[in-house]
């Protein structure tokens, strides 16, 4: 529903219309939030298009602010969103920040975005006032939660932007429209996990002005709550937690005792924030050396001369001063002794807490054909001592692990290449997810900063089209110092920009990103497609197939996507009516 030919945007304070003279101030343009507004953009059309959402979604509006003169200390506020006597509340405004990308990834997508400045929009800064220079462009991001009880209809909203020209304060206003459809989302059926970086003192320290956060201190738990809120609000419903790292061990004469209180507290935080469908038990084993070398089990043992000579585990926090985590082959009697005691104790504890039915267990990350035998040996201990618990892992191989995994998570390109194998697994009762990470590259959709934002959203249309019920990514918050300001392409380009994180650290808070917003909206799209499939399978498959042509071929037109999305909502309304 186009409104642009009807409404004029009044610029309050300097007595100008937005389409009038250029004496000073700013101009405001509505830009589809699936476009990444680069700093070098100079031409805009004010596309006042209605934002269309179901109840239970988040409506997003993006405004491009163009400086006609220098304006200082710009702030934004949504003043009202009404439909007759009904209101939408909880709107949040944030200025979109820019991050530098010094190295493009290779091989690139044919759709890669080129930025002359090397800067790309990504973090959304909700607590900052911005300045704008004459001729500069600055995006504003507005989110409006639409709860499940919101009244359907066309809502008219208004955002006010204030700022100083010289010493005089001015205010500019802009209207926007949200149509709420009589379609209601419930609990998301798509399983989604974004791994946090183990909540170690250094990572959490980036939320504490660089000062390390003591493990299990009050601040530690508060910052975990901050993560849980952000993850739940963006539809993450699977959370990885390491039972090995969050259990307090004592050991004497070959006998272990276990205190699971820290594990419980972390799980309970995520449950309280809502939507936790699966508890994703972190890895029990790690590579013993090079990439294809066998996996060794992580084992807590007394801290003595013998254990200091062994390979250390990646565990960032020791259980006690007397215990040390080391890596041992599963054939080592000490590893077997530990697994035979720890796994049954963990099972009993999860069962007593009522969590066993949602607990799933990693063994080791990205097994290959060459180290598959050691993976299989460890899996046999899980089957015996943690019976009924599903094993999941991201995989870089297929057939070699056919008896050892219950939830298969291939990288998107491996899913593409071996799709027939994974379809057979599903027919045999296995779950299949997919993941993206450092790859795939080329023309595959991913969360890289240099890719069009629509491709991040389309990841979950891929989930739907190929009936893949879960998605995993390793990099929620794998930050470096000054993450908002450093080159986003990590490790000399080995990690493409954006791969290491999709949220950003502030002081005691997290900033979302336009990529995380797009991912959340794609998760909602998946649910709408499954709702339509329940009523009209052919219609749902046709819509998904119109934008997902293949695993690595997509219709990236934002205009076409909006037409498909509108049709999706309309077809759901036709069915419900």
Features:
Immunoglobulin-like, 30 strands, 577 residues, 2 domains, eight-stranded parallel β-sheet, TIM Barrel, 30% strand, disordered N terminus, alpha/beta
Question: What is the typical, i.e. mean, pLDDT?
Answer: 92
Question: Percent range for helical residues?
Answer: 25-40%
The domain tally reads: 2
The computed structural class is: alpha/beta
The CATH class label of the largest domain is: Alpha Beta
What's the architecture of the largest domain in CATH terms?
Alpha-Beta Barrel
Please count the helical segments: 13
Gyration radius, to the nearest Å?
Answer: 25 Å
- Total strands: the figure is 30
Unreliable spans: 1-23
Examine the coordinates and then state which fold CATH places here, giving the name of the CATH topology of the largest domain.
TIM Barrel
Termini gap: 21 Å
Main beta sheet strand tally, sense and closure: 8 strands, mixed
The coarse silhouette is globular
- Strand fraction equals 25-35%
Report what the structure shows.
With 577 residues, this protein is of the alpha/beta class. It folds into two domains: 10-182, Immunoglobulin-like, CATH 2.60.40; 191-287 and 334-513, TIM Barrel (Alpha-Beta Barrel), CATH 3.20.20. The chain has 13 helices and 30 strands. Strands 1, 2, 4, 6, 7, 10, 12 and 13 form an eight-stranded mixed sheet that branches. Strands 14-26-25-24-23-22-18-15 form an eight-stranded parallel sheet. A five-stranded antiparallel sheet has the order 3-5-11-8-9, with helices on one face. Helix 11 packs antiparallel against helix 12 (537-547) and helix 11 (514-535) packs parallel to helix 13 (558-576). It is globular.
